[in-house]
Write a structure and sequence with these properties.
The protein is α/β, with parallel strands linked by helices. It has two domains: about 220 residues, 3-Layer(aba) Sandwich (Rossmann fold), CATH 3.40.50; about 60 residues, THUMP domain-like (Alpha-Beta Plaits). The chain is built from eleven helices and 13 strands. A hairpin with a 6-residue loop joins strand 1 and strand 2. Helix 5 packs parallel to helix 6 and helix 8 packs across helix 11. The structure holds adenosine-5'-triphosphate. Adenosine-5'-triphosphate (ATP) binds next to strand 2 and helix 1. It comes from Williamsia limnetica. Keywords: Antibiotic resistance, ATP-binding, Nucleotide-binding, Transport. One of its GO terms (cellular component) is plasma membrane. This is ABC-2 type transport system ATP-binding protein.
Length: about 300
């Protein structure tokens, strides 16, 4: 059996804060196979960075374990199997792009890799530009190049496109996409649904320190593309509908209308119109954004993680 790239078991992490302890990660179990491209998607404060820090060995879990290619993360980093592009982290403004790559490669004993990573990160045209003159997107590509120096099997990116404009984001992901074809495992955190949707094979949605959904982008999309049927219903009809559609989820009443979520909205609407006294039947479609809001807000009404008193 192949060793997973990442295996997180029962991971928890609590931080002290002025308002009391904050449980940033609240029991995460996750297995990521070699070669997968996985998006960690979640609102602000969901626990993505805290989880990534533990994956990288930058912080220690309060409980649970982290394995990276079967070893602890610090060993995996030391062996060059895992590398990261973090949100923060200094680049020196007065060096050029090429100088930066050469200096870091020198400290790694990876001088032979300089040309390869400059090309991979599409930095050739800006190799002589000073870091201070590079756009946010170019600086992230430079960090990406540095992370590629050990030719890692797994690359972890924490919100790599935060603060970039649309054009820079697009160009950054084009670079990533080209690189990912080499079979590298990629794990990235993002707030942006469209990035997760465009680039990942699998989306792990995180809210309030927990995984609230985990599936192929197609399956999350399918969940998302479910439709809501709403109608004015009397209580007896509602009972009958529940009995006929046991897979019904998310039944709520607002303004005298019942809103019913089901994978087969056509069958439900047909049933309402032909077998019940339902009035004013409407079908509303959902998009990925709706699923994201629904899945993450079930677990956190606000974007604030659970506080432990
Ligand atoms: N070092 C720390 N000390 C205190 N609280 C922390 C610390 N690091 C994280 N937290 C808190 O833990 C929670 C989870 O933070 P984390 O950065 O992991 O979330 P995130 O999903 O990465 O959010 P964002 O998308 O905003 O980066 C937040 O409430 C954050 O304020």
């Amino acid at each position: 059996m192949n060793t997973p790239a990442i295996e997180l078991s029962g991971l928890t992490k609590t931080f002290a804060s002025s308002t009391g302890p904050v449980r940033a990660v609240n029991g995460i179990d996750l297995r990521i196979g070699a070669g997968e491209i996985v998006a960690f998607l979640g609102p602000n404060g969901a626990g993505k960075t805290s989880t990534i820090d533990m994956m990288l060995g930058l912080s220690t879990p309060d409980s649970g374990s982290v394995r990276v290619f079967g070893t602890d993360p610090v060993t995996a980093a030391g062996n060059g199997r895992i590398a990261a592009v973090m949100q923060t982290g200094g680049l020196l403004p007065d060096f050029t792009v090429a100088e930066t790559v050469r200096i870091v490669a020198g400290t790694f004993g990876a001088a032979a890799a300089v040309d390869r990573v400059v090309e991979r990160a599409r930095l050739t045209d800006i190799a002589d530009r000073k870091v201070s003159k590079c756009s946010g997107g170019e600086q992230q590509r430079l960090k990406f190049a540095l992370a590629l120096l050990p030719d890692p099997d797994l690359i972890v990116l924490d919100e790599p496109t935060a603060g970039m404009d649309v054009e820079s984001r697009r160009s950054f992901w084009a670079t990533m996409r080209a690189d990912a074809q080499s079979g590298r495992t990629v794990v990235f955190a993002t707030h942006y649904l469209e990035e997760a949707d465009d680039f990942a094979d699998r989306i792990v949605m995180v809210a309030k320190g927990q995984i609230v959904a985990d599936g192929s982008t197609a399956s999350i999309r399918a969940q998302a593309s479910g439709r809501t049927v709403s109608a004015i219903l009397n209580p007896n009809d509602l009972e009958m509908v529940r009995a006929t559609f046991p897979e019904l989820t998310d039944v709520s009443e607002r303004g005298g209308r019942h809103h019913l979520h089901t994978p087969d909205s056509d069958a439900l609407a047909r049933h309402l119109l032909t077998a019940t006294g339902a009035r004013e039947v409407e079908i509303t479609s959902h998009n990925l954004e709706d699923a994201f809001v629904a899945l993450t807000s079930e677990h956190s009404q606000t974007a604030t993680p659970e506080r432990i008193s």
